[in-house]
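(Deposited chain)
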Amino acid sequence: MRRALHWNYKDVFRAARFGFSVKKLWIMFQGLLWGLIVYAVLAYLGFLVSGYTFSEIWHDYRYVPLPWGGELSLWGKVLVGLGIFGFWVFVSIYGTAVAKMTMEQLRGDEFYEISRAIKHGWKAGRSGVFAPLTLVFMVFLILVGGVVLGLLGKIPWFGELVLLVLAVPVLFTVFFMLYLVVSLIVAYYLAPVVPGATRADTFDILFEVFSTLNDENWRFVGYEALLYGVKVLAVGIFAFFVGRTLAVIHAVLAQPWLMGQKFERIADAALSYLPTLSFPTEGVYRAVSWFLGVTRTDLLLYPPVPPKGLAVPEAILGFLFGILVYLLVLLVLAYWGTIHFAGNTLIFTVLVKKKDEIDLTQVDEDFAVAPTHPEAPTVPPEGEAQQGTEGQEKPQAETPETPEQGGA
């Protein structure tokens, strides 16, 4: 049954419930895992070409080197940048799959398959990647034009004349560049979900981004701020219960009459595989430490020292449990991702209804906009008998099936 919406800010609060789905969590978990693997490999290469040894990288960062906190060479920065880009591509494509499943759920299909959603994400999600890249390329061309103009301005007499002639076009061009930068921010939120909610290509995504920025800018900002609050609250509660689950396991198995010190050593060995976190700014550190403190998971900030003298079975189990801790962290981040993409799908659906008067929950997946309805057949006035020459009633001609009837 098709889900009924309020068509206002109230629908944003439903993002936490739409995101809390095993199928969507599994889709987002896969995107984060593959993206993290790509990033980790390229980041390790970036640190290696910058002069770090493998043991130094492992000692400081474990599985996932952070993109800050170390001096990198030019090629190291390029490799780490490519890793960040690869991570974003995977998250965006699998986010399109989450958006597709959310839209099918809004249309009443509660049993939409994970494989179909991921297939749609890989097929249509590429447009969600190319749309922001198109905006970046346009900004880059404008900046290159500014460099060329600056070089021409160095020419005596001719440079001053060029600046005088092009002063007004330059002002409009720079203003347009700033507009593209703001559009890029909007595209960060909407580009992955538009091809999931509709059958849209790169041009359609850019059109939706520009129309949203022009027609529904304040609603968009307000809805995104509200969605951010929903993400912090819902993910905080989810992280708290994940952390309490581990605490209960530790409290039981670490009892002296059970595993006792043996489990303590295994737990310390598992947590020692977490990286020593560093942060780009003091503000980010305070925000993250506050969130981890509220959810009682601040142990992630201060992983224990690897215990010495572990037996071989304890070391193996500690290594495997260390990987499990990473997977649990990814699970919490996956819930953040499902709320983000499901919530932006709801926001986009509401904004399209506001600005275009189109209900995407009633639109077939083959259409990016609502199909045109054919004119209704003419109904004869009441009282007119449709009879033949012998007084018998004429059989009425069959009304041709409309596209809506055929697709019902």
Observations:
- Residues 365-408 have pLDDT under 50 and may be disordered.
